[in-house]
Amino acid sequence: MLAVIFGLASIASDRATAGKTDIEWLTGHWCAGEGNQIVEEYWLPPHEGVAIGMGRTRSAEATEGFEYFRVVDIDGIQSYVAQPGGRPPTVFKRTSGGKSWVRFENPDHDFPQGIEYRREGAGLHAIVSGAGDDGAERVIRFDYSPCDSLAPVNADAEVATIKAIREESNLAIARHDVEAVVSSLDEDYVITISTGDILYGREPQAASWADHFAEFRDVVYVRTPTDVTISDAYPLAIENGTWKGSRTTPNGPLNNSGSYTASWRKVDGTWKIRSELFVGLACEGPDC
Length: 288
Fold this sequence. Notes:
The protein is α+β, with helices and mostly antiparallel strands. 19% of the residues lie in helices and 51% in strands.
């Protein structure tokens, strides 16, 4: 209860010193980045001159950082108060601004010394700047769009793209083209093959395919997707399907088949396979 009382007292103090500068244009849920890293800022509508926000940097696997911030008058000067990682606040005072833009500075801070926001059309642009560790000027820009705009515009098109990549992979296996086979794999690729063995990394997978093609000159595998689902929240997708393989061993023909699941990740605008799980469910031949 004491924490709530102190919090209300702080907000009341902020309200009492709030200025009249319009910062309504900050309001919204903003996202920047693509692929495996997204930076978000969420600003509540200002009330009596006080704007409260929070931010985070996230990947598909984790929240990598977070921050609390607010814009409020302090001693009659509109100020930006930042608390990265929930640490004690750092104050940046307004030095310039205009309609739909504002700049705050703190020359005594390490980095950044300047924070600037600009609203241009449907986008919000943030710039942090100051001297880096080597003393040279460093500028980092975040070009935000409304977070909803980062959702796939056409999920059907994304599904079609993944299925096309899968078909090209099947063709690459049929012609024993190792480079083309692994071109669709992520750097961190992991596979569990039909016998249950696990292999890590794209390069080891390339070596494995080369050995397999050298040993079995007629080996073919066909993976057929039954469904592909695009994530609404992350640059990820999941593919389920069936697979069939055939090759001639020293003891005669071998045919096997089963089911598979693949995890896809969009990297720099291109879909890559992050991991695959193949389960063998049927086998015909003397070496089964």
